[in-house]
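Subject: design request, 336 residues
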């Protein structure tokens, strides 16, 4: 029970079944804290604690007992606290923290009324709730940081940070329509947001050019998916399908895309989905070299490119989900 209570990341735990075994352990290893059961076989925990203190042991001792051992008795033996069985694991961890921080005797928590197993189960539920809350906070922090980075890239390229927000929502909606299990991969959302991060390596005079690009300039722009994947390759939250979105969102169903010229099923499904979302937003947004198409014209163009630029299965899902996608477009147009 104690080993389960003390996480390995925070504690180096050594076990001994008796006072004699404990002496063998501390001859070669100096603990900062000792948990001594009062009912040790052979020399009892109280007597062993007193012997340790007389010998100058510097470890703080918490006596563990299910009996009526007074705090005065524990203090006279040299202990710094008493943990009464059955105890709450969370209460024990809090007691350990207080004992380590303070030099004087620390009053321990009272024994809990329910049995030890029920206490552990209750505390496990409390820990699980706390971990879920912390996980949500961490995911929110990741999302906010990623969105801020994506918006910084977009402001440079488009003058607004809404592109990343729109394509993220388009792509999430399309992914749910094509294969909802894709959304079990949390890296996808980050890939949707950071798909153009590689453009930070493209010069402004190329990225913001109001007219057609030269062949050499086009080749430089086409490096951004591979550059983005290289930038993000060691980022933990990108490990999964998200990295493939960054690298392959400009591939085409017919094999005429880049950076690798993949075709058909060779292109990861998430990247095929995102290619439609990205093209939809590109066509319905003003660019330095052209004005935005109307929503209906953009829809017609995506349908026309089914089996050429886009996966027909994704286009079918797009047509079915088009009203919901248009609602996203109109919602974020109001924000702009």
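Subject: RE: design request

Done. Sequence follows.
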């Amino acid at each position: 029970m104690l080993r389960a209570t003390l996480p390995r990341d925070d504690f180096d735990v050594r076990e001994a079944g008796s006072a004699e075994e404990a002496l063998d352990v501390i001859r070669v290893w100096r603990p900062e804290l000792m948990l001594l059961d009062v009912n040790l076989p052979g020399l009892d925990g109280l007597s062993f604690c007193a012997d340790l203190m007389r010998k100058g042991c510097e470890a703080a001792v918490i006596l563990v007992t299910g009996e009526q051992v007074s705090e005065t008795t524990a203090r006279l033996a040299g202990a710094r606290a008493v943990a009464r069985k059955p105890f709450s694991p969370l209460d024990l961890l809090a007691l350990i923290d207080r004992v380590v921080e303070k030099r004087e005797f620390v009053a321990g928590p009272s024994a809990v009324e329910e049995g030890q197993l029920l206490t552990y189960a209750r505390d496990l539920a409390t820990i699980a709730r706390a971990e879920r809350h912390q996980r949500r906070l961490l995911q929110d922090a990741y999302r906010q940081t990623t969105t801020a980075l994506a918006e910084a890239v977009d402001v440079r390229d488009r003058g607004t940070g809404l592109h990343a927000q729109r394509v993220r929502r388009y792509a999430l909606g399309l992914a749910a329509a094509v294969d909802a299990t894709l959304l079990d991969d949390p890296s996808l959302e980050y890939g949707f947001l950071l798909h153009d991060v590689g453009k930070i390596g493209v010069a402004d005079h190329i990225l913001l050019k109001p007219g057609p690009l030269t062949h050499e300039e086009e080749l430089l722009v086409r490096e951004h998916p591979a550059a983005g994947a290289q930038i993000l390759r060691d980022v933990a939250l990108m490990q999964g399908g998200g990295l493939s979105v960054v690298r392959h969102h400009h591939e085409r169903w017919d094999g005429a895309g880049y950076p690798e010229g993949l075709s058909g099923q060779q292109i990861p499904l998430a990247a095929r989905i995102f290619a439609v979302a990205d093209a939809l937003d590109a066509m319905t947004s003003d660019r330095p070299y052209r004005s935005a198409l109307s929503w209906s014209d953009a829809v017609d163009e995506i349908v026309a490119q089914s089996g050429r630029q886009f996966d027909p299965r994704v286009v079918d899902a797009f047509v079915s989900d088009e009203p919901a996608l248009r609602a996203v477009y109109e919602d974020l147009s109001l924000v702009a």
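The chain has a mean pLDDT of 86.
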